[in-house]
Write a structure and sequence with these properties.
alpha/beta; 3 domains; elongated; Arc Repressor Mutant, subunit A; D-Maltodextrin-Binding Protein, domain 2; two-stranded antiparallel ribbon; 286 residues; 11 strands
Length: 286
């Protein structure tokens, strides 16, 4: 028996379900039929793919190897089919580009989508967002995304590189996000030390920004009273009602009731990076 894509989908479904019973229900097969199919696949691959136990199944080392390859091959096969359809239906028989973008919070992902849609109106642009840049980079490494847009503190690298190629897009100084009626809102720039008694609101992440912020406060002669790690909307709300000073990027768009003020001396910065897998088709367009 030759291994086919449907066999890889079956292996993936069993691993995701964690048991043959749940996998058979998800695949619409009777459990005996699925068990028989799995045995044929295991014979073709030369060994057991799953350990059977009272609580379900877990991949063997061979199973993990096959699953790792399946996570690359199945999305690549789907992408090939989608590109073939677009090629067949495209103007003058020319294939239209696809851009599967992943990004963390921030305005640059929207700006990149706008630019790509404007430049490739017949192309397909999709997005996926996550607070975790590790999740995003692993999705690019496994072929589920073409590009990832992440940020790092200062000159530090991504928290997870996963063999990707990286290119710097730009660097933002970090600004203060203040209520419009905050005493410092009218200043052209603000020394960090003048905010020693403030509470802070920041968006969570996996990099070293929290450590960099603490170090900057220490250099300014104080320790933060408290730091609220929350989503962007909550950071904006806390700043607007005067409960906290937010930290934002210079590219943050204007918002009613909010003033963004530079920190004197730019003690904190945020570097934007775009990453792709060097052996993926997306590398040609990078």
């Amino acid at each position: 028996m030759e291994l086919e894509l449907r066999h890889l989908r079956t292996i993936r479904a069993i691993a995701e379900a964690g048991s043959l019973t749940r996998a058979s229900a998800a695949l619409g097969l009777a459990q005996p039929a699925l068990s028989t199919q799995l045995k044929r696949i295991e014979r073709a691959l030369g060994g057991a793919l799953f350990e059977r136990g009272r609580d379900g199944v877990t991949p063997t080392p061979l199973g993990e190897l096959v699953l790792d390859r399946a996570r690359v091959l199945l999305p690549a096969a789907r992408e090939l089919q989608e590109e073939a359809v677009r090629f067949a239906n495209g103007a003058n028989g020319e294939a239209q580009p696809t851009f599967r973008l992943g990004g963390t919070h921030g305005p640059l992902l929207g700006g990149l989508v706008d630019r790509l849609v404007g430049e490739y109106p017949a192309g397909a642009v999709t997005t996926y967002t996550s607070w975790s840049d590790r999740t995003l980079t692993s999705m690019v490494a496994s072929g589920r995304l073409d590009y990832v847009l992440v940020g790092t503190c200062g000159e530090s690298g991504p928290s997870s590189e996963d063999g990707l190629a990286w290119r710097g897009v730009g660097t933002d100084p970090v600004f203060l996000m203040l209520a419009a009626d905050h005493p410092l809102a009218g200043e052209p720039e603000v020394e960090l030390a003048r905010c020693a008694d403030e509470h802070w609101a920041v968006v969570p992440g996996e990099g070293c920004f929290g450590d960099c912020f603490s170090a900057a406060c220490t250099r300014a002669g104080f320790a933060p009273v408290s730091v609220y790690e929350t989503d962007v909307a909550s950071c904006v709300h806390l700043a607007e009602v005067g409960r906290a000073v937010g930290l934002c990027r210079a590219t943050t768009p204007p918002m009613p009731g909010i003033v963004c003020v530079p920190l004197a001396g730019a003690p904190l910065s945020w570097r934007h990076l775009i990453g792709w897998h060097p052996q993926a088709p997306a590398a040609r367009a990078a």
